[in-house]
Structures are given as structure tokens and as C-alpha cells.
Amino acid sequence: MAMEDLFGSGDGDTGEDAPSSAAGGRAAKAARDAQRSPLAVRMRPRTLDEVVGQQHLLGAASPLRQLAAGAAAGGGTQSVTGPSSVILWGPPGTGKTTLAHVIARGPGRKFVELSAITAGVKDVRRVMDEALTARDLHRTTTVLFLDEIHRFTKAQQDALLPGVENRWVVLVAATTENPSFSVISPLLSRSLLLTLRPLTDQDIRGLVERAATDPRGLGGAVRLSDDAAEHLVRLAGGDARRALTALEAAAAVALGQAHDDGPEPAGPVTVVVAHTEKAVDAHAVRYDRAGDMHYDVVSAFIKSIRGSDVDAALHYLARMVEAGEDPRFIARRIVISAAEDIGMADPTALQTAVAAAQAVQLIGMPEGRIVLAEAVVHLATAPKSNAAYQGINAAIADVRAGLGTGIPPHLRDAHYAGAERIGHGKGYRYAHDAPHSVARQQYPPDDLVGKDYYVPTANGAERELQARVERLRGIVRGS
Fold first, then answer.
1. Distance between CA atoms of 387 and 394, rounded to whole angstroms?
2. Which pLDDT tens digit goes with each residue over 180-197?
3. Is the pLDDT of residue 343 over 50?
4. I want to staple 243 with a disulfide (CB 3.0 to 4.6 A). Which of 45, 196, 236, 278 is the partner?
């Protein structure tokens, strides 16, 4: 297949090649326009069976299946038993727009798309008025796709309520942010919230391989080497649109190079890693998410944070990000590092790490890399202490060794009938009645009295904590 057949030559029809009928001319023009569309648009699924991933939402008789099944048997209006509006929440490239288009392909449907960036209240009201007219006069259901609904103001979202509540439209709203915080409660309660998951590597691999052979895609003009396919999967980071865009660019590079090197090849041109690198200007990072390199990079990342080398830590973070590592996995490792290696030397490190994990979950990638970098810088430059980590390990070791038998009677529960008779709670000193709210009494079991598990360091905030712990022990133990 020639390059102009794949990517469009941009030339108009000549007089002798023009179809003899107007209908034929329109069909030919539509075919050319479709072929010039981006690969991601051409490969957009037409039915739910073609959708990649999101199988947790696509089971038999699922709400999405009902919504995409089309109008009720009696005409173009939406069935009163099925869902009327949905909010699709998920990272970019997981199929929110695709699902909207599939739903709109049902019989008796027309598709209207609004962007929260450009549309105002007047636009929303106009769509609602037109949808009501289409329903009542033409028995046609309007599918309103609203992208980035989290950018809509309260007034704009309020304008959607009559159409959603009275089923003038089937609203399909998409958002990358948690709808609980960005969508007004009345609209949220009238819509079905569906959470889309990031596509797996297997999903992306199947998608790009299908696009290479599908007539709507590259039509077999290229074939992917295993390394090139793996590189595209890593670059995609779970984003189908990004994967198809990169594939299209790599195919253009491969076909252009083959054309420059000599006669047009008879068979498909092989796309290799060099083509994908040149197409997206990104070096293929050597990183096997299921092999040794995965564990080696993560190990080096954690040890660089522990060793306070902020530059090395950022390097390993960049390698994981560029290789398509799951940002949630990186965030989890950062949280563990904050607790294990920094601890009470800087108690705010764990707060930063947890906030970073939540932020990454909320906003996704690529912006999530900024949040991860901020957390890494905080942890790598913070004072270090593993005293809390060592303390719990020592306590667990004693428990496993059978130490710590029983509980002092004065600490036992004394709230049930008969507890006082057997001595539970007798002699307990309420800490808040003592000076500084610290009372002298025995807390550990008899065989662990005087045992120190937590040994603060002299690093960071633990320097002051060290002296406080000694004073508290002195009061409690009476030493």
C-alpha cells in the first residue's frame, strides 16, 4: 500500500477520475476523508465488542450494554427501565470518548458533543431545546457527550439537570477527576457513575497489532517487530490514543525510509525500534516490568532515597516513568520509604508521600510525574531514621518468641458486669489526672517491663524526640 493511500495525498480529484454520479463522488470523498483521519479516529470501535479493556463494565446485561442497545422497541425514545445518563471517570486514553460514540450509534440516536472548555450555559440550553424537539417530533434520542465535565461551573451543570431528569438527552459525561468533588450532587445522583481502568499492556499490544493489519487502520502495509511493539506499549502508558498516534508516526517513518531506499516493497514494511524512537523522539528505555531490570531499578531508586542522593533518585524515577511503570506502584514505594527510612526524623515526609499517592490517583499521568518528583525530593533530602521500623520489628520478634504474656489487671476492660469483682481496672490511674497528663504505672506485661523497642536517633526531629522519650519513660517507669 502506497504512503498516500495510508496517510492521504491531499490532491483533489481530476476530471477524468471523478465518479460519474454525484452520489459516487460524495462516497469517494467520504472515503478519502476517512482515510486522512488520524489512526486513533479510524480505529475507534463501532460496537462494544470491539472495545479494548473495561471488561468489568461490558458484561452481559450491564448498564453500558443496555445503553448502547439503542432505543426502546416502541420508537426512538430511551427505555424507562435502562440508564439514561452516565458519567465516565478514568485516565486519558481509556475509552471515554469511544464509549460515547458507540452509545450514539444505536438506532434512533443523534450525537452531539460539547466541550466544557468552550461551551457555556446558552450552548447547553440550546442542545436541550433541540433534543426535546427531536424527541417529540422525530422520535430521536440525542446523545450528548460532554468532555471534561469537571471544568463546568455549577451554573453550567445546573443547566443539564432538566434534560437529564426528563430524559430529553442521554448524557455521557467524561472526566479525569473524581466526580465526587467536581460534579454537583443533583447531577451525580441522576447519573450512573462508571469508573474506567487504565488499559493493560496486553490490551495496548493487541490494539496496535490489530491497527497494523485492520483495513481501517494501516491495512497490512507494515508489520511490527516484537521490540517495536513492546516499545509502543511502554510509550503508551495505558493510553490507547497515545499508542495509536505513536504507531501511525512510526509507520510513516518506516514507509518513508523504505521508499527512499529504493523501489516500493512488495510486502509489508517492518517497523523496528529505531522507527518508533525516531517517530516519537524518545529513546527506548531498557526496562522489563516483569523481570530483573524492574526490580533492579526500583531497588536503586529506594536506596538512592535512603542514601540522600536526590539526583540519583530523580534519575531512577525518570527511568520508571519513561518505561511506563504504573505510577501507583511508584507512589506505594515512596510511601513505604517515608515510613521505613525517614520515620520520625521528619514526620511530614509520610504526609507528603501519602498526599502524592492520592494526587497521582486523582490526576493520573503525565502530570503525576511532577507530584512524584516533589515527594522524591522531599524524601531524599530529609533526615533519615529507621528507629520506628526497627522498633516494630523488635516487638514482633518478641511476640513470635512467646514474650509478653498476659495484660496487667489494671489495664483490662472494666466496662462489663462482673469485671470489677475479678479485679479488672482496679488501681488504674487516669493519665489526664496526673501532672502533664503522664501517670506513673505499669503498661507492658510483667516479662517486658523496662524493654525499649523505640530507640530514637539524633537525626532531624528525632533529636528533640530522643530527650522527650527519655523523660516520658522516667515518669512512667518511676526511674
1. 10
2. 878 888 988 888 888 888
3. yes
4. 236
Q: Is the domain of 334 the same as that of 423?
A: no
Q: 325 and 258 share a domain? A: no
What are the grid coordinates assigned to 188, written together? Answer: 451525580
Last residue of a domain, one of 280, 305, 325: 280
One-letter amino acid of 212: A
Grid coordinates representing 253? 517513518
Task: Please give the C-alpha separations between residue 384 and each of 22, 85, 309, 338, 340, in angstroms, as whole numbers.
Answer: 77, 51, 12, 9, 9
Q: What digits encode the pLDDT tens for the residues 396-439?
A: 888 888 888 788 887 777 776 666 667 777 788 888 888 888 88
381, 402, 430 - which closes a domain: 381
Q: Answer whether residue 329 is part of any domain.
A: yes
Alpha helices (runs of H) in 37-113, residue ranges in sequence order: 39-42, 63-68, 96-104
CATH code, 436: 1.10.3710.10
Give Cα separations from 187 to 121, 126, 159, 164 (angstroms): 15, 19, 10, 8
Is 36 within a domain? Answer: no
67 and 148 housed in the same domain: yes
363/382 Cα distance (integer angstroms) = 26
State the chain's maximal CA–CA distance in angstroms.
109
| CA gap 343, 351 in Å, rounded | 11
Q: Is 287 a domain residue?
A: no
Domain, as residue range, for 344 = 292-381
DSSP string, 381-404: HS----HHHHHHHHHHHHHHTT--
For 72-122, how does the pLDDT look when each residue is reduced to its tens digit (9 = 90+)? 333 444 444 455 788 988 888 788 888 888 888 777 788 888 877 777 888
89/189 same-domain check: yes
Question: Crossing angle of helices 240-261/273-280, nearest 10°?
Answer: 110
Answer for the pair 72, 79: CB distance below 8 angstroms, yes or no.
yes
Residues 6+ apart with CB under 8 A from 307: none
Q: What is the mean pLDDT of residues 11-22?
A: 43
Q: Are residues 464 and 371 in the same domain?
A: no
Q: How far apart are CA 264 and CA 3, in angstroms?
A: 10
* pLDDT band (50, 70, 90) for residue 279: confident
Give the CATH number, domain containing residue 298.
1.20.272.10
> What is the overall mean pLDDT for the chain?
81
